[in-house]
Amino acid sequence: MWIYKAPLWGVLLMVTLILQGAALAAYWIGAKYRERHPNTDVGAATEFIPSTILGILALMIGFTFSLASGRYEHRRQLVVDEANELTTSYERAWLIKSDERKEIIRLLRVYVDERINQYQEPFFSERFRELEARLSSIENQIWTSVRRAVHENGAIFENALVASLDDLFDLRMSRNFALIKTLPQAVYWAIILIAVAGVGTYNFNRGLRKNQGPGAAGTLALLLSIILVMIVDLDRPTSGAIRISQDALIAARESINRE
């Protein structure tokens, strides 16, 4: 989706222009309507509609932010789980008696390096896909070495290693799927449309009352744009200002490289 590929400043600029344009247009329409209908009642009833729409907007933003932050926390936990499984697999690899032990340990060290490098790249980039293909190749090499070790010994340690490696590689797929599992684009468009309606009706009301300029609604439009961009940034963890920390994997790499 374009909203996850576009730079954050581009999303902020687009949403701000849409809301600012709606604010200015609504203020002008309200002022013109007042000029043509000077006896129009502009009592408290005219404030009900923008207040209601802005209340619905606040509810939508809160709901969307909750979903985005929940997905962010889920992705963060997957990093910790992957680091734990990597350490477990590494420790179990030391227990096997096969000559394949050194090769498995070497491949695990390469694997974690590539995993950390992969998540420094945007998810939709060509580099990310290249690293994904390389990780699949390393995974196949690890399984080849493990199969040889199992055929040679078939001991309980090899079977335990198979289980931990299976969980480790499943977590790679889970993390990749979690990157794809983002909020539908329709949710963002719904928020923008409700925001346009809220800012528009608020500024139309100000135009009717001949309040000085659309400045207040312009400030509101900018704040709403910033909040929406923050939600977008929270929901795309491999690019932007808010990213999933790889500290757990980095700590696991340091641990296995020390031994």
Structural description of this entry:
It is rod-shaped, with a radius of gyration of 27 Å. The chain has one domain (8-35, 54-258). The chain has 9 helices and no strands. The relative contact order is 0.21. By secondary structure, the chain is mainly α. The chain is 80% helix and 0% strand. The model has no long low-confidence stretch (mean pLDDT 85).
Secondary structure elements and pairings:
Layout: H1 2-5, H2 8-36, H3 48-93, H4 101-118, H5 126-152, H6 156-180, H7 185-209, H8 215-234, H9 247-258
Helix pairs in contact: 2-7, 2-8, 3-4, 3-6, 3-7, 3-8, 3-9, 4-5, 4-9, 5-6, 7-8
Beta strands, count: 0
State the end-to-end distance. 44 Å
What percent of residues adopt helix (DSSP H or I)? over 70%
Order of helices and strands: HHHHHHHHH
Shape: rod-shaped
Number of domains: 1
- Based on helices, strands and strand pairing, what is the structural class? mainly alpha
Main sheet characteristics:
none
| Poorly predicted spans | none
Radius of gyration: 27 Å
Q: What percent of residues are in strands?
A: under 5%
Q: Can you give the mean pLDDT?
A: 85
Quaternary structure of the protein: single chain
So how many helices? 9
Short summary:
By secondary structure, this protein is mostly helical.
Name some characteristics of this structure.
mainly alpha, 259 residues, 80% helix
